[in-house]
UniProtKB/TrEMBL annotation:
<comment type="similarity">
    <text>Belongs to the small heat shock protein (HSP20) family.</text>
</comment>
<dbReference type="Pfam" id="PF00011">
    <property type="entry name" value="HSP20"/>
</dbReference>
<dbReference type="InterPro" id="IPR002068">
    <property type="entry name" value="A-crystallin/Hsp20_dom"/>
</dbReference>
<feature type="domain" description="SHSP">
    <location>
        <begin position="35"/>
        <end position="147"/>
    </location>
</feature>
<dbReference type="InterPro" id="IPR031107">
    <property type="entry name" value="Small_HSP"/>
</dbReference>
<dbReference type="InterPro" id="IPR008978">
    <property type="entry name" value="HSP20-like_chaperone"/>
</dbReference>
<protein>
    <submittedName>
        <fullName>Hsp20/alpha crystallin family protein</fullName>
    </submittedName>
</protein>
């Protein structure tokens, strides 16, 4: 015979553990300094404005040196990457150390761009990019329907 109760207590406990247990474990890892930051925390924040004739992007990059930032435009994608390596020190007096190798990358789909007009400037830990839009030559046209 079968039971008319849709879930038994042990099945509910298992489901709760499967659904929420993993989430809480990941949240603990996310904020645990011993575990290190996850890719969510390692990524830099950015704002993208779509202005009439250009895109304007501001990316937060505090503590990143200009020579460690790489910007390229490849097949309608703007790729921002950071590769900063910390020099190894022989000083073993550290009690706690958070600074380490940092490697991050973001890709943005930006079609119709004048590649040779892209400008970048790093000031006060913020990378400012101006990306002029290309004139794609398209115009709006009304099509008459014959009938």
């Amino acid at each position: 015979m079968f039971d008319l109760t849709p879930f038994r207590k042990n099945e509910l406990d298992r489901l709760r553990k499967d659904l929420f247990g993993d989430m809480f474990e990941r949240m603990n890892q996310l904020f645990d300094p011993k575990e290190g930051a996850t890719s969510f925390l390692d990524s830099f924040k950015l704002d993208v404005k779509d202005q009439e004739s250009q895109y304007v992007i501001e990316a937060e990059m505090p503590g990143i040196q200009k020579e460690n930032i790489h910007v390229r435009y490849d097949k309608d994608y703007l790729v921002l990457s950071v590769d900063q390596r910390e020099e190894k020190e022989e000083d073993k007096d550290y009690v706690y150390r958070e600074r380490r190798v940092t490697s991050m990358q973001r890709s943005l789909y930006l079609p119709n761009v004048k590649e040779d007009g892209i400008k970048a400037k790093l000031a006060d830990g913020v990378l400012h990019l101006t990306i002029p839009k290309a004139d794609d030559g398209s115009t709006t046209r009304t099509i008459e329907i014959e009938g």
